[in-house]
TrEMBL record:
The protein's name in its UniProt record: Probable nitronate monooxygenase
Classification via Gene3D superfamilies: Aldolase class I (3.20.20.70)
Spans through the membrane: none
Pfam families named among the record's database cross-references: NMO
Alphabetical keyword list: Flavoprotein, FMN, Monooxygenase, Oxidoreductase
Residue runs in coiled coils: none
Keyword RNA-binding: no
Keyword NAD in annotation: no
One Gene Ontology molecular-function label: nitronate monooxygenase activity
Length: 356
């Protein structure tokens, strides 16, 4: 199958590949720009992006706002002509501020999940920034499209359908993930594609649908393309690249992981998530947990520092810096056996020489 360009409004990616945003500190300017230079869409994670700032602990919001501008500028310098996006969790209490800051710095695209991003259209008004919600079902897709159209007269520039094999936070019920009773990616994708086709005809618009979660090969891309996907979003495979912004120890955790090491957990956010079953995860979930020493206020009203099993921010900072911690992953992490380059990975995904 020959790869077709991915058209999102007035943006055209030469390859229909979006690198998934991964936090904390896993996909920043280096990885995003490398993917963009290959003709895909590179995505910077906006989750606690300022964690390396020396003043982060005292003022995380200020550090994050500063880092958003800095990482966008770095990515632009490394990939002047590439498409750069950012990913934000819609349940973040400072979501509006962070998205607004990214828009101010001219980000091309905002991709948003971990809850329904119903406020997103207002935050990009009068800008060129494109917006794409992440949904896991046609019900969620219908809700977002109806809300955006009714409240803001805005239609999404694309829709990411994320299946249950994805890494990090998941838009499914814990019991369904544990029992295998949720929809597969292919089932949800088919439902969303059919719904979007009707929506497109009714409103005379074009909305690309992107498949995500468990995409790891050219054959996967071909399969979801045949189901109507215009492109794919891939996260886990890009972690095991030289350009990934995470530490070498973090990447090696992926290389060393066996298929059975991908574990479903209940995150302090209240969402199910998938992570490598490291010593940290075993201590956090198989014992009484890890006491929170400092609260960053990243999930105010959602996470109670007195009762949570651990501090999510601390756990992700630690892992990104290579000192243990929480390592999110996709279900197919066990298939990763080596560290490669973004270029070589994309060639493999294309199954033929690809030119940016």
């Amino acid at each position: 199958m020959k790869m077709k360009p991915l058209i999102i409004g007035d943006l055209t990616a030469k390859l229909p590949i979006i690198q998934g945003g991964m936090g904390i500190g896993v996909s920043l300017s280096r990885l995003a720009s490398a993917v963009a230079n290959e003709g895909g869409i590179g995505v910077i994670s906006g989750v606690q992006i300022g964690f390396r700032d020396p003043n982060f602990k005292q003022n995380p919001i200020k550090a994050n706002l500063k880092a958003i501008g800095e990482e966008i500028a770095k990515a632009r310098k490394l990939s002047p002509n590439g498409i750069i996006g950012m990913n934000f969790m819609s349940i973040d209490p400072h979501y509006n501020e962070y998205v607004t800051e990214a828009v101010k710095h001219g980000i091309d695209l905002i991709i948003s999940g971990a809850g329904l991003p119903l406020a997103l259209p207002k935050l990009v008004k009068n800008s060129k920034t494109k917006i794409m919600p992440i949904v896991s079902s046609v019900r969620a897709c219908r809700l977002v499209l109806t809300s955006w159209l009714k409240k803001d007269n805005r239609i999404p520039d694309g829709i990411v359908v994320e299946g249950p094999k994805a890494g990090g936070h998941l838009g499914f019920k814990m019991e369904d993930l544990q029992n295998g009773t949720m929809q597969t990616l292919d089932e949800a994708l088919t439902d969303v594609v059919n719904f979007v086709k009707d929506f497109e005809q009714k409103h005379s618009v074009s909305i690309p649908v992107i498949a995500a979660g468990g995409i790891n090969s050219h054959e996967d891309i071909e399969r979801v393309s045949n189901l109507g996907a215009s492109g794919v979003q891939i996260g886990t495979a890009f972690v095991a690249t030289e350009e990934c912004d995470a530490s070498d120890d973090f990447k090696q955790t992926y290389v060393n992981a066996k298929p059975e090491d991908a574990r479903i957990i209940l995150s302090p956010t209240g969402f199910p998530a998938r992570a490598v079953n490291t010593d940290f995860v075993k201590k956090a979930y198989d014992t009484d947990g890890i006491a929170v020493k400092h609260c960053y206020g990243c999930m105010t009203g959602i996470c109670n520092p007195k009762t949570t099993r651990y501090c999510l921010s601390d756990a992700l900072f630690t892992s990104a810096l290579g000192a243990g911690g929480l390592v999110f992953c996709g279900e197919r992490v066990g298939e990763i056996t080596e560290i490669t380059t973004v270029h070589n990975l994309i060639q493999k995904l294309c199954n033929e020489p690809c030119k940016a």
